[in-house]
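FIELD: query
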Amino acid sequence: MGTTRESGEAYLDWAASTPMRAEAVEAMVAAAHAGFGNPTGAHHAARVARRIVDDARDQVADALGAAPSEVIFCGSGTEADNLAIFGARRPGDHVACSAVEHHGVLHPVEHLDGTVIGVDAQGQLNLEQLAAICDDQLAVVSVMAANNETGVIQPLEPIRAVLDEHAPQALLHTDAVQAFPWLDVATHAAAADLITISGHKFGGPKGVGALVVRSGATLTPQVLGGGQEFEMRSGTHNVAGIAALGVAVAAMAAERHAVVGRVAALRDRLVRGVRAIVPDVIESAIDPVGGQQAFARPITKVAGSAHLCFPGIESEALLFLLERAGIYASAASSCASGAQDPSHVLAAMGYPRELAAGSLRLSLGYGSTDGDVDRALAVIPDAVLQLRAAAA
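FIELD: result
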C-alpha cells in the first residue's frame, strides 16, 4: 500500500497515525454487523459479540507474549498509560517516569508529584538517578520502549535489574505504542509488568488500545461501572474497533521482519539524501550537538524514524513549505490545537532550544514507498535552503 495519494504527495507522519489496513477495515465492518450485541449478555447475539472480543484478545496476547487474561482493552494508548500510572499507585506510594515520555505518561506522573528521571544525550535513562529514588514506596516506573519523536529504542532489562535490586515491589510499565510496528514486543518488553499499545499506529482504528497487565501486577481500576475487562476497565466494549485491532496486530506481527528491512533502507536513503545537500543537518541521538563529545556507542532507532534538526530555521515555517508541496510531516509533539509545542524530548537530551526549534520528524511505515522518499528529497533540502536564504 503506497502513501502517495496523488502525484507529488507523500505521507511521512506514520508515527502520528497510520491508514487503516484493508483487512482491519473488513474486520471492523463485519464485527459491526455481526457483533451488535452487548458482549456481557447471555443470549446468542451477545455470545457472538463476546466471541469476537475474545478472538481479538487472543491475537493481541499472542503478539505481546501475554496470556489472554492479561490483556485489557482500552479506548486509546493514552487511557492505557493512565491506567498503568494511576492504577499502580496506592496512598503513600510514589511514581516515576523518564523525561522523554509521551504526555500520556508524563502528565499523570507530574499530576501525582512523581519523579521525572533524566536521560543522556542519546535519550537513554539515567540508571543512577533511577536507583537513587528506589524505596519501598515506589509503585511504578514508566519508560517507553521506543521514543515517539526520536525513535530511540530503550533497553528495558537494565531498568528491570535496578528495580529488582532496589525496589522489587515496583512495577515496570512501558509505552510500546511506537515500538510495536518495529520490535518484537513480546521479547523486547519481556521484563515489563505493564505494556501499552494503540491500534492506529500500525493500521488499526483510532479509539482503541490495550494494556497488558501481567499476572501478579495489581492495579486499581480507574473507570468503574459494569465491571468489564476483568473488572479493570468498565464500559461496553467497542466490538468493531477491538476486532480491527486484533486483525491489525496479527498482520503487523506477521509482516514486521520484512517491513523493518524494507523501511530501514528507505529511511537511510532519505537521511543520506538530505545530508548530501544540507550537510550541517543533525540527526537526533546520532550526531553530537554543541560541545558534546562523539558518542562512544551507536544508538538503535526504530526503522521508520528519521528525526532531523536543521540549524537556523523554524519548524513551523518548514512544515508550511512542505505541506504546500504535498509533504506531510511533523515536528515535536502535537497539542490538541494542532500547533507545535517545544520538544520536551530534545530539551531533556540537552538540545539547545534554538536547535530544537528546527526539528523535523519524518516517520515512515509499512506502506511507505520509494516514491515517498523521492518526493521528500525533491522538496525538503530546497525548502531548508529557501528558508535560510530568506533569513540571511
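FIELD: remark
The longest strand covers residues 94-98.
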